[in-house]
Amino acid sequence: MSISSRFSVGIHILALIELNNEGVTSSEFLAASVNTNPAVIRKLMGMLKKAGLIEVQPGIAGAKLAKELSRITLFDVYKAVNVVQEKELFSIHGSPHPDCFVGRNIQHTIEPIFTAAQLAMENVLRNVTMEDVVGDIANKENIC
Amino acid sequence: MSISSRFSVGIHILALIELNNEGVTSSEFLAASVNTNPAVIRKLMGMLKKAGLIEVQPGIAGAKLAKELSRITLFDVYKAVNVVQEKELFSIHGSPHPDCFVGRNIQHTIEPIFTAAQLAMENVLRNVTMEDVVGDIANKENIC
DNA sequence: TATCATGTAATTGTTTTGATTACAAGTTTA
DNA sequence: TAAACTTGTAATCAAAACAATTACATGATA
Question: Which of A43, A74, B19, B24 could cysteine-pair with B62, CB 3.0–4.6 Å?
Answer without folding.
Answer: B24
